[in-house]
């Protein structure tokens, strides 16, 4: 997970904020694969807020799919 900390630092230090959602989305996916459901959900919720501001339907849909999968997984479905 250190790689995501480094990626976020690069994004912040180089005024690359437009990539923050990309980094967080992939961090969330990695957390999902590790079974860290709550942490993954937090990432995706932050990503969704950013992507709604960007107003790019395909990006919003991608994040919503991840959140929906997590919901099903954590509800035992």
From TrEMBL:
PROSITE patterns: TPR. InterPro entries: TPR-like_helical_dom_sf (IPR011990), TPR_2 (IPR013105), TPR_rpt (IPR019734). The keyword Phosphoprotein does not apply. It comes from the Bacteria. The keyword Hydrolase does not apply. Keywords: Repeat, TPR repeat. TPR repeats lie at residues 21-54. This is Tetratricopeptide repeat protein. It comes from Cerasibacillus terrae.
């Amino acid at each position: 997970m250190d790689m995501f900390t480094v990626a976020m630092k690069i994004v912040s230090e180089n005024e690359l904020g437009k990539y923050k959602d990309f980094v967080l989305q992939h961090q969330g996916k990695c957390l999902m694969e590790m079974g860290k459901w709550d942490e993954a959900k937090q990432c995706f919720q932050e990503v969704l807020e950013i992507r709604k501001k960007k107003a790019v339907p395909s990006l919003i849909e991608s994040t919503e799919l991840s959140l929906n999968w997590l919901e099903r997984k954590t509800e035992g479905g």
